[in-house]
Design brief:
Blueprint: H1 5-10, H2 27-38, H3 45-53, H4 59-67, H5 75-86, H6 90-102, H7 111-125, H8 135-139, H9 144-151, H10 159-186
Helix pairs in contact: 6-7, 9-10
Length: about 200
């Protein structure tokens, strides 16, 4: 089938759909969004392959498209091939669930690094999940002081607002602990062992 480049130009999905990155996206969720954007373009399979090619990041994506994706004869086969390639395996899902069960943010830890790692593991543990489904599992990865402060406040059911609030509380607690440690270091040390009896030597 010929590729109508003019048709593809009018359907520039790149403007409204991030390129697929296995490190950042869940395959099921991404393809659902991608499909919703290209469906009304009335693309044939070759045009769809060109569009898919524009929306991938990394060698794994390039290799999949070259070795498997480009061999697909229709849209359904292309979608199935994509999901089979980039969905986590049952073993990866099990390992991710185990990892999340013991994963915790430390009081002095890097919050953004913690968040990135949580999202990467949660995408494996629960592919295709809704954003709100992350909230309780994420709260469960917070250290006790942070968890207590957060849960003492009115519940937050919006993921973006939750992350903003948790980031603020984590910084606040880290600052408090840092000041407390500094104060303790600057406090005068008490004399050890009480008054000493002079030792007169003859």
């Amino acid at each position: 089938m010929p590729v109508d480049l003019a048709k593809l130009k009018t359907l520039d999905v790149r403007l409204i759909c991030d390129p697929f990155d296995l490190k950042k996206h869940d395959a099921d969720t991404w393809w659902t969004l991608f499909k919703a954007k290209y469906t009304h373009g009335n693309l044939n399979i070759e045009e769809l392959k060109v569009l898919v090619q524009r929306h991938g990041v990394g060698d794994l994506f390039t290799d999949w498209l070259k070795e498997k994706g480009n061999l697909c004869a229709n849209e359904a086969a292309l979608e199935a091939s994509f999901l089979q390639e980039f969905r986590p395996t049952p073993q990866e899902q099990t390992q991710a669930v185990y990892t999340l069960g013991s994963y915790r943010l430390s009081p002095g830890g890097d919050f953004d690094q913690h968040l990135d790692h949580f999202l990467a593991e949660y995408r494996k543990a629960s592919p295709g999940h809704e954003t709100k489904a992350r909230i309780l599992p994420f709260i469960g990865t917070l250290y006790e002081d942070l968890n207590s402060r957060l849960t003492s406040e009115p519940p937050i059911n919006d993921w973006a607002r939750l992350i903003t609030r948790v980031r603020f509380l984590h910084k606040q607690i880290s600052k408090e602990k840092g000041l407390a440690k500094l104060t303790a270091m600057q406090a005068p040390k008490g004399k050890q062992g009480g008054p000493q009896t002079p030792n007169f030597q003859t």
